[in-house]
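User: For my dataset I need records formatted as: sequence, then structure tokens, nothing else. Please produce one.
Assistant:
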Amino acid sequence: MAGPTAGSARRGGELSLSLGVHFALGTEDEARLLAAAGDDDAVLDVVEDIEMGSRDSTSCDMDKAWDAIHRCLTDGRLEYLNGTYPLRAAVLGGRQLIEDEDYTVSYVNADQVRDVAAALEGVDEEWLRSRYATLDLAEYGPEHGEEDFGYTWDYLQDLQEFYAEAAKAGRAVIFTVAA
């Protein structure tokens, strides 16, 4: 699995991030996804069905803010297992369902979703700003600044609401992003 650059690719010497999306899974989509685990192509087929608008799942677009959000919720690095549970599970730190360097499907079961939702409740703008200020500019990139922080905070609030709703509904969540 890709480590420090999970979900990112280098093009022309610059870091290029893909758009990330969270999906709260209905029971049918979750069962299909877990049954496909171990077969990357089958998992990607199920994810494609979910992305195309499965009636059983809801989504939360993260645009490119998922990168800064994950870094702030963990230890500042873009890796799957860094930071501490449950905040690390909010974006990249769930169970990795495929072993593809070009795509991430990170799964968080319904019990873990409740843990993540509760932990995210405690994240306010001041806390996020203090974490954002510590990001390593050499690793994070030139976007770092007040405008990018506002963008990150806006998407984090969407993520908080999304996880709260998924927890209330007893749903599992996946995060997907392509390199």
